[in-house]
Amino acid sequence: YPSEFLMQKITEDNQIPVHLHVSVSLQYVAGLKGRALVEFFHGNIAEVENEELRHLMWSSVLFYKTPNVEVMACVLLSTKAIYFLLDDSFIHADEHQSDFWNKENSDCENSSFHLSCCFVLKLNDLQSVNVGLFDQYFRITGHSADHIVTCLTRDSYNTHTFIQQLMAVLSLLARTPSPEPVDKDFYSEFGSKNTGKMENYELIHSSRVKFIYPNEEEIGDLAFLVAEKMDGLTNLPSLNILLYVLAFQVNHFEGSAQNTSSLQPKTLILTSSDLFLFDEDYISYPLPEFAKEPPKRDKYQLADGRRIRDLDRVLMGYQTYPQALTFVFDDVQNQDLMQNLTLDHFGE
Q1: What range(s) does the Nischarin C-terminal PH domain occupy (predicted)?
Q2: Domain around 317
Q3: 266 touches 236 (CB < 8 A)
């Protein structure tokens, strides 16, 4: 251990996405190759001596306790746990995290020693994995609110590869078999079925971890929501969602020392007549079993919407993946074509 093939694969995967900036400590990790990377894992991250590193992936992650802070992480899957090596800027992003992250090592800040915090989710604590629409992201759920993490891969291939590797590693776990089912009485047998909502597709792994995939109803719900936002400009039966993709909206800040740009995570939805940008909650839905109340915001919040027929031109950048697209719309004077989102519906 490890095989040459595995070391080559992990080395190839150890690349930070070019559009995302990370701290010096994570840049150091991204510079490691082959055996140096494996030795770094065993010397600095692994919790037990005999665990094997099986997969490495760079991804943006969200935590259930801090749903508004998206942070870059190096995700390492071993035969014992999933490790999230986090950008150290995350610790300072929110003052309310003091109970979630220890800040004991803050005296290292001004030295040449760069610190990363590592979040560990043991495979034995894993309960379910929810795969998002079109494999754009997945959520890993443990036994408490501290153990819920969403990986925003924004890439179906990376999602699929990680899920396959995770299933393979879970197959190695020796878990006690489930107890024999208890004979249900008449009321519980028939009372639980009248929820009125179709369950998502569930695959229960031999390790008893659930892998939950979205069903067709989620796309139907999304189409209904989009039609509602279009304010009756189209009839629902003819509305088709052609594309659903997690992207970034680029906001340019001019006049600063150098013209900088920030990337705002958005969900882009394309229908046959409109282009929409939504702010989506990737971490709170479906509700975890221990949740006492629904989340403070809806799963989808409309940020912007334009009609395709008002699209003037699309500018494409010539850089490599990820591609930058600029949509230029005609400046439409007639405002009733697009409902003003701030309008008071009960006003004039």
Answers
A1: 241-347
A2: 216-331
A3: no
